[in-house]
């Protein structure tokens, strides 16, 4: 028979074991509301090819589920993060966003990005989340209108529904979201005008309304948005002149994208005072006149696109330390040569100067660096000579367009980089035979040259090869025996 002291020790050991078990059960189970809300979300998902939600199982700690973060003190779910890959369908999620997520009262952030196939209307459950601060539901198929009372989400620091299918206007109540640092509605089907009340969002660092169907003039709302680093209004139907209050963004703005609209008038001189500007896109508008001399002050500009406007000479001398991408194509420029500040750049990867009045011999053009080039467009100029030396020194070239020049070389002397997908040498003086490497291209046009011989196996139409001296074989007439 055990002594009293032995029985007491055994009792304490058993008590400790039971207590430990209780603690283990307590810490291993998340809050029942959080678990129920998340399992309802999973139930509304009809396809999960990559198994993102495989760890979401009843009775297990939801704080350890994939994509879930919890508060360390109260063990409540604070963040839901499920991210796919934009170009990989096997990382998507299909289904709807369950309204039961409203059970997650401590949820502060929802990040459902690049999942591609989430559908349904605006998730009104957001209005039932008292602690929600960050919403990024991007690149899916949500549709319908953005609710008029979206301004009730006053705790939000960031709101993004980029790349969905929302339609209708941007609600005027958006002006109530005065804590917002980021507002991203790009890539939808939104119509109407930009609400003037956006000027109340004084903490914005990023405003993206690009790739919609917005119309009218852009209101003068920017004098209060001096924290903006990125402004994108491209690919809409805006008209009129660039608002003068954009000049207030000069000290801090890094990205300004206004391309693919119907803006008119001259490019404002004040844009030359944007000393922090990295990227400026004014392409595919109706700007006229000259480019301001003040552009010479844009010493930090890396990406400049002024293509497809009605701009004329003279083009200002730029004082950039190194340009990465430049597109001046299809204006009224007569540059005669590729600018020295372009030729000297050691970081350039994209050069597009189609129909810019360039009159050089390609053999004489000696860019400081060709290694990084992935796109070169020299179309519709008066360029002669051979591009062989240039092309044979590019390692990552994806596209080379030089149609409508006087380029003369033997086609067989070119070493095609493995990355090349798009080649247009039409309307030149190219001769010789076509190399087998053309079979791997996605786009090809060598029409109206002096090429001869059998055409290698290909997937292109006859128009890609027409107008040559003696090419034969599919898709042209068969070669003679």
TrEMBL record:
Record's keyword terms, sorted: Leucine-rich repeat, Membrane, Repeat, Signal, Transmembrane, Transmembrane helix
Superkingdom field: Eukaryota
A UniProt-annotated Pfam family: LRRNT_2
Leucine-rich repeat-containing N-terminal plant-type domain: residues covered: 33-71
SUPFAM superfamilies on file: L domain-like
A biological process from GO: response to other organism
The keyword GTP-binding appears for this protein: no
Transmembrane helix listed as a keyword: yes
Signal peptide: 1-28
Subcellular localization, as worded in the UniProt entry: Cell envelope; Membrane
Membrane topology: Single-pass membrane protein
Record-level GO cellular component terms: membrane
PANTHER family in alphabetical order: POLYGALACTURONASE INHIBITOR 1 (PTHR48059), RECEPTOR-LIKE PROTEIN KINASE 5 (PTHR48059:SF19)
Family indicated by similarity: Belongs to the polygalacturonase-inhibiting protein family.
Protein name, as recorded: Leucine-rich repeat-containing N-terminal plant-type domain-containing protein
Species for this entry: Camellia sinensis var. sinensis
Lineage, broadest ranks: Eukaryota, Viridiplantae, Streptophyta, Embryophyta, Tracheophyta
């Amino acid at each position: 028979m055990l002594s009293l002291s032995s029985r007491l020790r055994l009792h304490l050991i058993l008590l400790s074991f039971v207590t430990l078990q209780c603690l283990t059960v307590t810490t291993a189970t998340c809050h029942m509301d959080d678990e129920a809300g998340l399992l309802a979300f999973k139930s509304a998902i009809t396809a999960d090819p990559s198994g993102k939600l495989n760890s979401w199982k009843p009775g297990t700690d939801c704080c350890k589920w994939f994509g879930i973060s919890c508060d360390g003190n109260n063990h409540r779910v604070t963040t839901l993060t499920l991210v796919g890959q934009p170009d990989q369908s096997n990382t998507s999620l299909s289904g709807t966003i369950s309204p039961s997520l409203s059970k997650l009262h401590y949820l502060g952030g929802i990040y459902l990005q690049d999942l591609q196939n989430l559908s349904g209307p605006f998730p009104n459950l957001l209005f039932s989340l008292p602690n929600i601060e960050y919403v990024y539901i991007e690149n899916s198929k949500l549709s319908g209108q953005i609710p008029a009372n979206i301004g009730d989400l006053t705790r939000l620091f960031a709101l993004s529904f980029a790349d969905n299918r929302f339609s209708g206007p941007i609600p005027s109540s958006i002006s109530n979201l005065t804590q917002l640092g980021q507002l991203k509605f790009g890539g939808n089907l939104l119509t109407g005008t930009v609400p003037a009340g956006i000027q109340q969002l004084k903490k914005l660092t990023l405003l993206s309304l690009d790739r919609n169907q917005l119309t009218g003039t852009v209101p003068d709302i920017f004098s209060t948005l001096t924290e903006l680093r990125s402004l994108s209004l491209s690919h809409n139907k805006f008209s009129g002149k660039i608002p003068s209050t954009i000049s207030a963004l000069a000290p801090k703005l890094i990205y300004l994208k206004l391309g693919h609209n119907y803006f008119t008038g001259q490019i404002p001189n004040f844009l030359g005072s944007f000393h922090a500007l990295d990227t400026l896109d004014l392409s595919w508008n109706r700007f006229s006149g000259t480019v301001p001399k003040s552009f010479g002050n844009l010493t930090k500009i890396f990406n400049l696109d002024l293509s497809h406007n009605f701009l004329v000479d003279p083009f200002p001398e730029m004082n950039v330390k190194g340009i990465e991408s430049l597109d001046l194509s299809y204006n009224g420029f007569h540059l005669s040569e590729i600018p020295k500040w372009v030729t000297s750049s050691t970081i350039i990867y994209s050069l597009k100067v189609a129909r810019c009045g360039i009159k050089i011999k390609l053999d004489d053009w000696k860019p400081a660096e060709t290694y990084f080039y992935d796109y070169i467009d020299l179309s519709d100029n008066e360029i002669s000579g051979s591009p062989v030396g240039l092309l044979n020194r590019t390692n990552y070239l994806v596209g080379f367009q030089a149609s409508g020049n006087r380029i003369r070389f033997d086609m067989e002397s070119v070493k095609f980089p493995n990355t090349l997908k798009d080649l247009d040498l039409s309307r030149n003086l190219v001769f010789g035979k076509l190399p087998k490497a053309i079979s791997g291209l996605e786009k090809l046009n060598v029409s109206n040259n002096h090429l001869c011989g059998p055409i290698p196996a290909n997937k292109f139409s006859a128009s890609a090869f027409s107008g040559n001296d003696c090419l034969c074989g599919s898709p042209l007439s068969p070669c003679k025996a």
